[in-house]
Amino acid sequence: MSNDQEGLETLFDADIDREPVPRSQRLKRQFDLYVAAPCRVAMTDWRALVGTVIVAVFFLMGTLGVWLVDKPSSGDAPVLEPPFQNFDYILGTDTFGQPIGAQLIHATPDMFKMVIAGAVVSVGFAALVGVVSGFLRGTTVDTTLMSITDIIITIPGLPLVIVLVAIFQPESPYVIGVLLGLDNWPGLARTVRSQVLSIREESYVEASQIMGLSTGTILRRDVLAQLMPYITVNSALASRRIIFESVGLYFLGILPFTTFNWGVMMNIAYEGNALNRPDMYHFLTFPLLTIFLMSFGLVLFSQGMDSVFNVRLRARHASTIDDDGGHE
Amino acid sequence: MSGNYFVKRVGQAVLTFFATVTLTFVLYQMMPGGPAEALRNVILQQQMGSGNTIDPARIEQLVAQYTNLESDAPIYVQYYQYMSSVFLEQDLGESLYENTAVTTLLADRIPWSMLISVYAMVIGYTGSIVLGAVMAFKEKSRFDSVSSVVVIGLNSTPYYVAGILFIFFFSIRNEFFPTGGRVGLGVEAGFNVAFMQSIAHHAALPILSMSVLGLGAALTMRGNSVRVLGEDYLRVAELRGLRNSRIATQYVGRNAVLPMYTQFMIGIAGVLSSSVIVEQIFSYPGVGMLVYEAIQVRNYPVLMGSLIVFTLVTVVAILIADLTYGFIDPRISAGGDNE
Q1: In the record, which residues are listed under signal peptide (chain B) (predicted)?
Q2: End-to-end CA distance of chain B, in Å?
Q3: Residues A219-239 pLDDT 10s
Q4: Nearest CA distance, B325 vs chain A (angstrom)
């Protein structure tokens, strides 16, 4: 913690003679407030719980799963084996004899790479633009940034991404993620800006200004802390959107088929007329289910985070905050 | 004040459109080897079949004809020529394959895409507003919790997955709706009932699957309504003895829907975007299908033209929404800018 904060604490503390809190005690408190209490809140909220579990399972699929299950290749198994018959390929096999379960697992790491690249770029950029523009409200910087934002909001994202993909033929999942994140940031930047505008009017920000804290400190301690819920919730939603769009583009066959992807599987199944062939149903169903589950997990996670970030709920679940000491 | 607002919004729309056309110019220039190099391969392939050899000058000429770019001129001349042909001559270039102007191709397709997009938006958002309002009204009831889960579930279903499921259940298992196309075979085109019915019949499934996109708004609507229901002015309205219907529409409805306005506007761009994937699934020949076909053969003029037209439609839609918004929310035309 910074010096000025300690100075303030002594200034505003009634009993100056109190023993300083030992470091271990302070760490314990912070752990309780920022790690243990949110976890306890999350445990009581089914959406956060289910969402976290689903996302965690996908994460395990993308890390441990890839390591445990061999990369599938054509002719590994009989063609179009139905699901739940053979333990070696429990979800059945596709028209090339590749086990479907293994394909789903091996598509996960690239999915995460895309999502991380896209979400980091779009949410980070949105937060930066939103905070800067909100804090410099009314200046030329604000006007310019918001005009650019409004222009990009208007350009339909998917057609633009399609043109970009057609020209550059990206293969790296990171590049694809960034391209898909491009049309994602303006909406969030606007939300962040209006949040910053309303936070700026709050009395505690005014108090910080009067106390002479630097703009950087105010931004970090008062503004960013308030924005974290929005940023986290929107990262999860941005991830969902990037998954939708990338799988959609793979499904259309617009992105080059260089890796395993749920959309590629859907494309091959759909083009193979799977809708009319009962023996191919599983080839289309499992990728569909996987996408649904992953985005269901992300949506639940984002909604659960809403309650985790709720300060009152968190305080109630923190054991190091005295219940009787509050000023309710 | 309101005249000022009008001028500002229209100016912004024009600026946006201008920026998009500039963007397509930049995209042409960013192609590996520049537009001439990128198109040369496509043109060579295409001319190969006809057997006659073509000299480089002819290729230059063809590139200029297709894209409005004279690739050997200095960049600012190219930019000027490109912009002037788009804005002054409404010329978006020519398709590499069909020997038709891009504008003609697009003009044929745009009404069909607009048809499904507009209905999808209206149905999706109306449905979610009504659902959200009812959920808020019955807050914490069983209906509320069940529909919350259903909405989250629908929200997690990509619209193309919804489309595939619709085709499977409503076209293949039960032949309620056709699997593709925009009008039945042998139906006489024109202003007659059979034609209209056939159009509606073919458009129903694409519209339904695109309207899934708007359903996420139900949860926002629910949250807003719950917040409004707790406000003091609502209690005052009740105490004044106003009719319930008036409270529901004038007080709760209006105040809950207004904050969602920006979301709707961004939704316009989103719904149009989604038509690319939806139209391909339903083989519905709109602009989305055109884009899909163009990308298979690297028909760049058509791709760029579609991007420009998509943006134009979005810009106009948002402009109309923006200008009419003043009628709904008097604070906007009064010049308040605290979103």
Answers
A1: none
A2: 18
A3: 777 787 778 777 887 888 888
A4: 17
